[in-house]
Amino acid sequence: MLTRSDRAEIEEVIAIYGHVVDDNAWDRAHLVFTDDFVFDFSEFGRPNLNGVIELQSALRNRKVYSHHSTNIFIQEVDEDTARVRSKFIGFSNEGPPISGDYRDVFVRTPAGWRLSRRRSSVRDPRFD
Amino acid sequence: MLTRSDRAEIEEVIAIYGHVVDDNAWDRAHLVFTDDFVFDFSEFGRPNLNGVIELQSALRNRKVYSHHSTNIFIQEVDEDTARVRSKFIGFSNEGPPISGDYRDVFVRTPAGWRLSRRRSSVRDPRFD
Amino acid sequence: MLTRSDRAEIEEVIAIYGHVVDDNAWDRAHLVFTDDFVFDFSEFGRPNLNGVIELQSALRNRKVYSHHSTNIFIQEVDEDTARVRSKFIGFSNEGPPISGDYRDVFVRTPAGWRLSRRRSSVRDPRFD
Q1: Min distance B128 CA to chain A CA atoms (Å)
Q2: In this structure, is the dihedral angle defined by the CA atoms of residues A29, A34, A36 and A39, taken in order, positive or negative?
Q3: Which whole-number Å values give the CA distances from C99 to A3, A18, A89, A102, C70, in the listed order?
Q4: What is the dihedral of CA B55, B58, B60, B65, to 10 degrees?
């Protein structure tokens, strides 16, 4: 069973994600992502991003310049895998802040828990 | 005395609240609320909501479509009761995001810590 | 090494900070700040604030009326000192919400972990 320590580590990785992405601190990406990380963009009808290099490249012209994570809810899949729901607030240079959801898969690696897969969706009240 | 584990559980319930309410995932309401849950709306001069069914019904036409919780501060009342202050950010389809406060009572149940009473207030800079 | 309990305490102090500052609950300032607390405003080209009294006075005419903390990342310096990065969302009565970063120093005191130094910076997409 996931311990409180496992859960705190996962929460910490989610926190660091925001700093790495918003600060372009890609030298710290190893603290967050697995080597085979996939950013699942199927929700947006765009191809997935595979690995940190593709993520970094895709974010170069991003409009959302700050990412805040809240409401982290961790569910154990097995001893080394967890599904994690969280919410995010994104600050965009093209309008007011947005609210969205992350659906993550975390895996236990020798270096600690790392983000293996992230799916992002934006809440749009017009389509609710 | 509340253990770190008690506190982490309470934080988790606050996180799940946002997902249940925003996703209309009422089949998960038992993870969040006690059976005798009261949403105290006295601050808004409206009658309280009693139980999840009344809450669900009241939220049907809500304008705030996403709720983010932050700044959770847990204070022990006794071994089985805690008062919890937190802040929330609400995304509304009628204007910019709002900032507010939750004042909660949590109780320890056989199933874990659950939200027994919530009072919500919105910060309005005009009245500060 | 910092324990999970140390980390949870530091997170709690960051949470309480928002309540103290936004509620003007200065009678609880001792739960947050060391006696020799410094708010480092060098980023804004303004003199530092020294101690809670100066902070309280400086905040009297503040425009940001609500502070939400997220993305807390704690790094141990030594057994009694930690550097902490976090993000904040500020609600201002002069425009839309802002996103910023706190760079903190926490120290272990006989009463628990307390905030010894905070540097704040606001993310402005125009200057990124």
Answers
A1: 24
A2: negative
A3: 32, 12, 10, 19, 10
A4: -80
Report the residue of chain A nearest C8, measured CA to CA.
A8
Tokens at B103, concatenated? 């004042």
Q: For the segment C16-58, what is each residue's pLDDT rounded down to a tens digit?
A: 999 999 999 999 999 999 999 999 988 778 899 999 999 999 9
| CB–CB contact C19 B71 (8 Å) | yes
- State the count of interchain CB pairs (< 8 A) between B and C: 55
Contact C123 A22 (CB under 8 A): yes
Number of neighbours of residue C26 by Cβ within 10 angstroms? 15
Does residue A26 surpass a pLDDT of 70? yes
Q: Is this prediction's pTM over 0.90?
A: yes
Task: Judge: B123–C96 Cβ closer than 8 Å, yes or no.
Answer: no
| CB-count burial class (<10 Å; 0-12, 13-18, 19+) for A44 | exposed
Rounded Cα distance between C89 and B90, Å, is 12
